[in-house]
Amino acid sequence: MEWLERAACVGEDPELFFPVGTTGPAVHDVHEAKEVCRRCPVIAACLEWAVATGQTTGVWGGTSETERAGLLRAERRRARRAGAR
Questions:
Q1: Is the dihedral of CA 8, 14, 16, 20 positive or negative?
Q2: For a tag on the chain, would you pick the N or C end, based on fewer CB atoms within 10 A?
């Protein structure tokens, strides 16, 4: 995870990336976290890591929990298919 040292979120409040809930202030926090991600030089590596390790909470690689859910399902299907070979 060498990429983490170059992440734009280093030094930011971690709670911003792990809002509680999906309404009210949490929506604002997700938006603010994604703004940090947009300027991040390692956004792709972050998202790849989040999907590969099954991160189901928080904002990773510029994606919310809901946005990442489909990616995680696709990754699980791919892993099952690879294991069946």
A1: positive
A2: C
3-class DSSP state of 21: coil
The alpha-helical segments, DSSP class H, found in the chain are 25-38, 43-52, 65-83
Q: What pTM, to 2 d.p., does this model score?
A: 0.85
Strand partners, 4: none
The tens digit of pLDDT for each residue in 42-51 reads: 999 999 999 9
- Where b means 16+ CB within 10 Å and e means fewer, 22-61 reads eeeeeeebbebbbebbeebebbebbbebbbeeebeebbbb
